[in-house]
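I'll show a typical protein example:
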Amino acid sequence: MKIKKQYHYKSGKQIWRLLPTETGKLIIEIRDTLTKEVFFSCIDIETGKKFITDLQLEEKFWVGIETVYDDIIFFHKFHKPDMPGHSGIIAFDINDGRIKWEISDYSFLFLCKGIVYCYQSKFEGRNFTAFDYKSGALVEELGDDSEWINKLHDQARREENFEGYYFPDQYFHSEVEPVVSGNLEKIKNENVITGKIEFVQAFGLLFFNYHRVLDSGFLSNVFQAIDIESGKVIFEENLNDNVKAFVPDSFFIKDKFLFLLKEKSDLIVFKLE
């Protein structure tokens, strides 16, 4: 297995979220906490080709993504700045770069089989409504039957497709097979490490990152890949240099693509061949 670099995406600002789509695209959420602005870009996962660059909505910061379905991004606003409650729905089409529909007085719950389920908060409880994901047309008024909505939500969760995803787990010696613990314990013995090691075992390789303590007292976030059979390190990349604290969520794998987040603002994508 070889690890081949595909492209290097430089945002210039902090990358907050990476969201692969079922159509081979990658949504990148970028935030500037100083100017309080959020930008959204979309690239081809395999080639890095840009479909959308630094998209901004009318609301410049207090906006986020609920989900992506059939190349439509469903954005939300917030009830109030600095408050977690979501408000409104903005359906944005990646392919034509336009907002398809928008509603302000409903909040997104979930999406199932092309239907967007939403709610309005009432004095007592919630009122549920369903809309068509493409047009935003009303499909059905569902009243306040929260029991039925919860069952449908559970069904939608079970049907979510996570095939091909590999997200890191924290390493605990007693919970992994000997071939994994042997390699990771060797790394621990050879380095001054702080915090947890995060790892993925896939394709005959062991992918992991850890924080090495530097002579200066700062930390270096190191990513490595080891051939499990030979124990040989076949790839290494410093993801963050001279950091003061543990930096989690530095990598993941989708299908045969490895995504590395470097210095919080750069994305490097590799293909596993």
In short: The two ends are 5 Å apart (CA to CA). The chain has two helices and 22 strands. The longest strand covers residues 233-243.
